[in-house]
Amino acid sequence: xxxxxxxxxxxxxxxxxxxxxxxxxxxxxxxxxxxxxxxxxxxxxxxxxxxxxxxxxxxxxxxxxxxxxxxxxxxxxxxxxxxxxxxxxxxxxxxxxxxxxxxxxxxxxxxxxxxxxxxxxxxxxxxxxxxxxxxxxxxxxxxxxxxxxxxxxxxxxxxxxxxxxxxxxxxxxxxxxxxxxxxxxxxxxxxxxxxxxxxxxxxxxxxxxxxxxxxxxxxxxxxxxxxxxxxxxxxxxxxxxxxxxxxxxxxxxxxxxxxxxxxxxxxxxxxxxxxxxxx
Length: 279
Known about the structure:
Helix 2 (57-67) packs across helix 3 (87-101) and helix 3 (87-101) packs across helix 4. The chain has an 8-stranded parallel beta sheet. Strands 1-2 form a two-stranded antiparallel sheet. By secondary structure, the chain is an alpha/beta fold. The protein has 10 helices and 10 strands. Helix 4 (120-133) links the parallel strand 6 and strand 7 (137-143). It has one domain (8-199, 231-237): NADP-dependent oxidoreductase domain (TIM Barrel, Alpha-Beta Barrel), CATH 3.20.20.100. It is globular.
């Protein structure tokens, strides 16, 4: 059972990854990114998730530096954007992200989307494997990959992805993909766990929250953790960053979990990875 903000899951290569972290999608570079990262770290967060396409790696890096916590205590993730896919371009993109963040290594580097162009994600994966073998990144993984994408990757992969970060929330609980990833020893991670705030008025989540004196957001985050899914809710407000982590003093019952599971409509709110090919 996850007991605190510093609790970790052990990835299949032995690296420990916090169950709960801060996501910074749509956080403005500059002071907004600096402040949200500093607020999170000050309040006990140890995992920060960014991406090249978020265009806020500099601000995130500055926030990490100003927070004054030892680098080895933090778990920093970034992601390879679609237009940088390919072998040499992946290696170059990694160095660019590292430089912007002002770090010597990443804890986790992900292929952001399985863009279909010429099976380029397989070339990108070879580069990821090199970065991993060279000790430049502690763990490598994918994002938005369906089962068939991972099957394709595994045909030639020497290193199996450690993480798959996907759309995951009570309306889209990805049961088959979760089972597939568990079977392959790949840790599932949720992006947009609160469905960008859309679920915060849900009557079921409100009712469950009232029992525990918790908000629908806290109920969702707790459900993620009890579903063994790593989660990275985003906020730029310090009080929300604190609230999102205030989920370790209660436990959802089997009935609560079943009621939340029943909200699954199997409908994506965001792009389908098979159709998403933005460069």
